[in-house]
Amino acid sequence: MPALPIIESFFDEELGKIVFLLSQGRQIRIKISASAISVYVPGKRHLTKARDFLSENKSVIVSKQNKLRSRTPSGNSVYDGMKTLFFTVRLIEDQERKSLFFRRKKDTLEIYYPENTSIETLQPQLLKGLNYFLRKDATAYLPQRLELLAKKHGFTYNKVSIRSKHTSWGSCTSKKHISLSLYLLLAPEPLIDYVLLHELCHTIEMNHGPRFQALLNQCTNGQSQTLKQELKKIRIPT
Fold first, then answer.
1. What domain range is 184 assigned to?
2. Which of 116, 172, 173, 191 fits 177 for a cystine, CB–CB 3.0-4.6 Å?
3. What is the C-alpha separation between 200 and 191, in angstroms, rounded?
4. pTM for this entry
């Protein structure tokens, strides 16, 4: 069956993508998915009426979309419900989708995926998309937080960079170049500060000897060992 002609399309903040299609039917019909709306219009002369019909039923449509978005993903995923410092991840099965679609909505990252698709097969694309949004937040937040803590405790450093490290939370070179993992945003703020202070302490002590431990413990109000153990509970997605 050939695709129906598109009369017009646009994006709505609440409803997602809205497409008006020229149909062969006699009535205006609406097809609702979790992230898009298809409006079938029986002739271009009914376009205004179709727009009005959509507007009048917007609250009902939003309610139905919310029900679709609350559906449990097919298969367990470490990503669904994942919390970062700035957003929570929600996986949403969507029959209109042919591939993954990411939408940041305030403190939620909505990830729409094709219906009847195994989450496991989407893992690489999920991680790539998650990294994109994590990097944006990490780039905006971590350098300014590092600078604030450095000034507070009297440290100096020469450079900071954000990496997608899976093996460590951060590092510091002998030239005082600090590298931080964007996955730090998966940890609560006290643990993020602990890692930042850990790397700042390396600008003075490059090893993990007694003087380093004493300095870090001083900067964390005697909580360095407790924070270290809490950090071990945070898992980096792979």
1. 138-231
2. 173
3. 14
4. 0.74
